[in-house]
Design goal:
Elements (H helix, E strand, L loop, with lengths): L2 E4 L3 E5 L6 E4 L6 E4 L2 H7 L3 E6 L4 E3 L4 E5 L4 E6 L5 E6 L5 E4 L11 E5 L15 E3 L1 H8 L2
Parallel strand pairs: 4-11, 11-12
Antiparallel strand pairs: 1-2, 2-3, 3-6, 4-5, 5-10, 7-8, 8-9, 9-10
Length: 143
């Protein structure tokens, strides 16, 4: 996957094969980790993500496939190379994208873990984060 960034031009990321390009405005960003069973199955580990409260500009929509992973959310991926592109809520303009799509994410703070009650015991992050259970997530952010 390729990323590029020109100050003031926003953030841009592409899938591994380059068929899909996502663009977002610049701004303050932080990373979070989701430990829910679905995200771990989707990514092979915790889903390290960056959140946006607006839809990205997408070039190559014809190469994006959507999977309805629950009643309230969908996951997008590239039809050609399988790159995970986003998790989005159906009822809102909330997008969660793999932080690894963005080279800049190495400099963003990691400050939140969700579905901590579904996290397996075989790993632990070293830094201090805010931790929410699934119940707390649904109580605070349910559509």
């Amino acid at each position: 996957m390729k990323t590029s960034h020109t100050p003031g031009a926003g953030l841009q990321a592409q899938c591994l094969c380059g068929a899909v390009t996502l663009r977002f405005p610049d701004g303050e960003h932080s990373m979070s980790a989701c430990h829910c069973n679905t995200c771990r199955r989707w990514t092979g580990g915790p889903f390290m993500a960056v959140e946006y409260h607006a839809a990205p500009e997408v070039e190559g929509w014809e190469s994006v496939r959507i999977y309805a992973s629950s009643k309230w959310a969908e996951r997008g991926f590239c039809l050609h190379c399988g790159t995970h592109l986003f998790y989005r809520l159906r009822a809102d303009e909330f997008y969660s994208l793999p932080a690894g799509l963005f080279a800049e994410s190495a400099h963003w703070p990691f400050d939140l873990e969700v579905f901590i009650d579904e996290k397996p015991d075989n790993y632990q992050f070293a830094n201090d984060t805010r931790k929410l259970t699934g119940e707390e997530v649904f109580k605070n952010w349910s559509p």
